[in-house]
Amino acid sequence: MVLAGNPNSGKSTVFNALTGFRQRVGNYPGVTVERREGFMRDAVGGTSIELVDLPGAYSLAANAADESIVLDALLGRHDKHPDLIVSVVDAANLGRNLFFTTQVLELGVPVIVALNMLDLAEASGLEVDAEALARDLGVPVVPIVASKGVGIDALRQAIVDAAGAPAQHHCPAFPECVCAELDGLCSSLAAGHDNGRIGSARAEAMQTLLNPGGYHESQMVNRCGLGLAGELAERRRRIASAGESLVEVEARVRYAWIDRVVQQVVRRVRPQPTSRTEIADRILTHRLVGLLVFIVVMAGCFQSIYAWAQPVMDATDAGFSFLAGWISEVLPPGPIQSLIANGVIAGVGAVLVFLPQILVLFFFLAILEDCGYMARAAFLLDRLMGLLGLNGKSFIPLLSSFACAVPGIMATRTIEDRRDRLVTILIAPLMSCSARLPVYVLFIGAFVPATPLLGGALNLQAATLFGMYTIGAAVAIPIALLLKRTVLKGPPQSFLMELPTYKWPSPRTVFFRVFEQGKAFCVSAGTLIFAVTIVIWALGYYPHPSSIAADHDAQRLAARAAHEDVVRRIAETVDPLVSAEQLAARPAVAAVLAELQQLDDDFARDAADKRVRPNSDGWLAAQREADAKRFTVAAECGDDGAIALQLYALNTSLRDRLADLDRHESGAFLGQSVLGRTGKFIEPLVKPLGWDWRIGTAVIAAFPAREVIIATMGTIYNLGGHEDETSSGLRERLHAAVWPDGHHVFNLAVAMSIMVFFALCCQCGGTLATIRRETRSWRWPIFTFSYMTAIAYLAALLTYQFLVRFA
Amino acid sequence: MGFAGKNMNPGSEIIFDTLLGLRTGESSTIVGVTAAQTSAKRLADMGFVSGARIEMIRPGNPCLVRIGGTCVGLGTANQRCILIADRTKRKQDNTQGAEELLSAYDRLTTA
Question: Does the beta-carbon distance from B64 to A211 stay under 8 Å?
């Protein structure tokens, strides 16, 4: 059983109302169009009926594979032949909606009409007589208001009653000449037709004959041979010579019939008031003001992403760090412990932490689409898109690419012009996708200060995020122009889109969309990143020569021995008969030591709470303050205080030395691993970008899937740190990262160069695979990969060199 | 902005206009749609057929029109394809001879 109807007729609302949560989304093979199917119970709650929500269509005519899905599904090519078609029509726009209904009525399948949006019709002063419509069409008509749930049970009942009932529809009559040609064509096509229903065959014949250059024609010619092309031309010539306009005849005949029906069925009882949509559109479609509103809306989205998701992200980060620390304590050291704590948990956790941000982004996109604002945005941007040589319909695929380029590229199928479509596909990966978002958030959060701008309405972090998104779009413009001027010349398609009435977004629709997208991200994150994380962990762990461990253990031993030596000598100076331990155990000394230690802990906790970065100005000032306090405490206790202070200093330096050794050891291990060796090999290439070999390594690891960079960096820096550091988040670890000579790897310039590289590089196997599938050749994915990598490298180079000198 | 086309009666001229000539708030009747074939079928199926009333809400590129109760956005090329009854000729039955005008227009543009 299928649901068919115009876009914006409320079809999806009806579908959701009938199926509730028992629905799922898939794909029709070979096209990008969503396939929604579900199960509904009949009114009594007994049997389950399978329901498919077809894509919205104004007509069965098709100019692209995507558009032909509706007719193909109705002809039973994708599943079983439908037992019943529920034609959802918008009562406020009955005339145009009935066009598609009349086409559907001719298929020979039982039909029910769901007369939807009666509330809106009434609000505009129209009265629609459902019974009269039922009489005129010859089918049951169920009045409903799907958004409010009115009439849904009646619809359920009608569906159950009508399935299997014979079809007795009234249809418009076509002129003689057309009918004759259609009948003739039907018999020609019957040879290649796979089901014997007369209505279906005729519908397909009509769309083949009356839509010259359309999709069905090319499909038929492919199937039946070039002889068919000749036959079609001949038949069309006969129709034209009979005085009928080929492309207009169907519309003319149907609308004439529909007008007569509508006159009897629809009555205007009140003059049409100015609708709220109209009033809103006066502003929202205004060339200047509307555009400003659009910019504000988009900026609001990005600001909200930061504001709402931040607390959740922090909580998740802490949770995973705790888990990793716990594993490190529970399991014995060795490959397994390292794998789980440093590979799996650290890796996957570091990515899932950003799920909240992604959900918020999808949430906004779903709301904007459901309320009808997206069409206005496409309308406003059409001229701008036109400057790129594209049309407004490119906007939605490009906007979708901001979430993920893979469905965005698939959505370009709505663009009929082959060249426009190709250009859109080639620049889609430049739109910063959701996988780049974790990279931006990580580096912006860690290295860009949250300075308020514009009096607190915006802050520098959000502005930088906005900027990163803009970079991709800014680079896309000259690329698109260049492509359009050289490789892919051609005239643009003209804009044609309905602007639907505004409606409150349905919570159920929004929820489903966000849930589906989130699930898809999780699944791809879960599987792909998990697999790659394990591989990266292995590449970074093996080979694991024990000589390095032995060497460092020896050094640790030496350091401890030296420490004990000095402490013993201090003890001897004080009192030759007292050992070092007894000295430290003396109550006065112990007390001061404890207090000094407490100061230390307080300082560390304070720094973490206030998120003060190590070695920043604030941090150093606080250090000096703490040192002064220590002196004061020690001085108060005279000799014992002095001893305690010395012991404290020695302990601290031992601890630092051990930490140093740990870091060095991890670095040595990593350097010996496969990953490390590759990274070091390319280090000269990436040094001008301000990167060290670890960053270079992580970037390489991210080429199959850029989400992996976070996991890889989590892994790399985990392996490069020691146990204490597992309790801090990735940010703190980045701040602590140092070059071999000690100065910090990461600063604003490096962070920006990494982000710019990510903004412009095509690091996504999924995208390249999709481009290959959509363009049916390897040429374009290779081209995309090459040009984007080259631009990314240059841009990152320029960014780093500029910022390092001037910022 | 208007096109002059000869109808079958020599000596008389009928002026018709394209949608580009319609100003804000004005209504007119569609006389015909002439275009590259795929656009024409698409426009026709959406309701842009001879005899339909069309009202201009916001001219420009793309423009916003109301047709059959819905608002539709149309790009300039599409606007150029939609022929409307010239507003200066109210009483004249401009729909007469529309087919001849259309074929004349086609000949003009494809020549």
Answer: no
